[in-house]
Amino acid sequence: MSEAKGKMTEQPNLFEAASSAPEIERILLYALGEFQSRGKILADRELALDRLRGAFKRAAEKFGTAEFSDEQIVKNLEKLDAKIIRVPNFVAKHPFRVTVYQSLANRAFEFFKTESEREKEK
Can you state the percent helix, strand and coil of the chain, rounding each to 5? Predict the structure, then answer.
């Protein structure tokens, strides 16, 4: 108990300690890893956001959250160091092209494997 504030301070539990990444980052990493687990090539390829939407939807469902908007996805992919190119709206329904570099693809696949193993242990 913190004497200065007179109330208990939050302590991370076992699961929070393992996941310091913000929730959306975890969901996007899981989605990118899941995309690769289906045998699809992700690294160093420019893909239409529409090609990745299914993986983002499945990941959101797995983590029990609402689907993210295109803008939320691309903003957070940029934070993860993916390259985003906006194309005109008349070109595509989801007007973004995404390039995931090898380092991010590897990180996402490792995260996916870790999460999948954790699920199997339950």
Answer: 50, 10, 35
